[in-house]
Amino acid sequence: MRGGVLQINWHEVLPVLTLDFHPTQDLLATGGTDYDIKLWVTNSGGEEKKSPGVRYHTSLSGHMTAVNVVRFSRSGEQLASGADGGILNIWKSHSTDAGQVWVTTKSLMSHHDNVLDLQWSKDDEFLISGSLDNSCIIWDVNKGSVHQILDSHTHYVQGVAWDPLAKYVASLSSDRTCRIYVNKPSKAKGTERMNYVCQHIISQVEPQISEDSKSARSHIFHDERLPSFFRRLEWAPDGSFLLVPAGIYKLNTSAEPVNTAYIFSRRDLSRPALMLPGASKPVIAVRFCPLAFKLRESKPSTTLFKLPYRFIFAVATLDSLYIYDTESVQPIAVVAGLHYEAVTDIAWSPTGKYLALSSHDGYCTLFEFESEELGLTVSSLEPVEVKDENKTPIYKQEKSVEVTPLTKSDNAECGEMVVEVMEQAEETQTDASGPMEVEAGERLKTTLDDTDIAACRDMEVQVVEPTGAKVNDPVPTKPVRKRITPVAID
To answer: Which residue of 171, 175, 381, 478 could cross-link 155, Cys pair, CB 3.0 to 4.6 Å?
Structure first.
């Protein structure tokens, strides 16, 4: 992995608010406060292992206000852009004698305020957008009209995501809620019409360690004081889980909140299943590499997810980048100190070769991965049929993750934290004061024996030194910050 900040004139040195890669070629689109969308061709560092770069391709001029989000359709034939003032433009690619050109085919104008995020449906026939007017709108792209308005949020909608299996859409707002909508088609004149209704409102959870029996529930997302207009969430490419930014977590009611991103399992979208804590600044965007990778081990011992393949995803905070692998407990790379102002968006190229970040300081960062550096890819994602209320195919996850608690006094002598990967227990625990009984546990990265585990029960995690891939950072190396590893929420 090599790369860094590309100090070129991206958008007249004005803030770059968004970026996205074309799904079939290494073409990068960026948008900013200069009102333009610009397309760039990425250049590899080659065998000389130089840092990657970009070459200016063309500009798309059609907005009269700042461009907050750009997203290519899954086919790559169209590009959607959302801007201040509530304007959403649809661009389409045409081949001419002079080359490929992009022209505006539709302008969608039903939002009453700035459009902050959007995403295409899997078939490219619909779009969902989120706005400062507190609403989400599902658009029929072919007709250029509003299909449905989701207006249950009470504050800005700063992130939206469309389930790749087309069953759910999700939205994240500064009203401190994440809402999950499920498609319950309505019938009219003998035809089914797509209709999303709110199924879950995720806002608060009870602390893991209760100081009293009547402990107050605490919010799990930042409020409107979060210093960013973006909370970009995303589904895994196979739809098996949803990754949500802008999270905060309190170990108990008196503890200081910890910045985190939450992972929601498709099996239960009513509450988070896992969190990725430890960032010093709030998480504002997450993005999955579009490819799935072969497992490095036939029976991985350090995985948080029981999947037949690996996913790699990036988590961006206001000032740093974490790259995670679903087969490992800790990030495989951590990069910080790249930009002078807040990160605004992240994007992967279709081949997983490039990872790009945009920033409010007017510059973008581009990283390049060498061939097979992230691993060998798999040719297809095979769903595993499970029994749920609608018999939706999802992907096999047989095991859950638990963290063995440690007391503060045991921190110095216990060494690394203990993670237990265990089979789901059907019977409830009868003795609340004793350790939970489980079956066939596998221990990861532990220096404790079974008698030590029973004695350590008050804290959920322990701080450990980060590990992972080394990154060539263009700024002077800073002391390594201690970080909390991902933990399961009980």
So the answer is: 175
Q: Is residue 334 part of a domain?
A: yes
What residue type is assigned to position 25 of the chain? Q
Among 182-191, 222-231, 340-349, 421-430, the minimum mean pLDDT is found in: 421-430
Query: Is the pLDDT at 112 greater than 60, yes or no?
Result: yes
Nearest residue to 354 via CA among 39, 52, 31, 17: 52
Residues 319 and 464 placed together within one structural domain of the fold: no
Query: 30, 37 in Cβ contact below 8 A?
Result: yes
Clarify whether residues 335 and 480 are in a common domain: no
- pTM (2 d.p.): 0.78
User: What gap in Å lies between CA 348 and CA 358, rounded to an integer?
Assistant: 12
432 and 356 inside one domain: no
Full residue range of the structural domain in which residue 103 is found: 2-368
Domain-embedded: residue 222: yes
> What is the C-alpha to C-alpha distance for residues 173 and 179, in angstroms, rounded to an integer?
9
Cβ atoms of 200 and 182 closer than 8 Å: no
Indicate if 47 and 194 belong to the same structural domain.
yes
**Furthest-apart CA atoms within the chain: distance in Å:** 76
Residue 50: per-residue pLDDT: 86
DSSP secondary structure letters along 396-418: ---EEEEEE-B-GGGHHHH-S-E
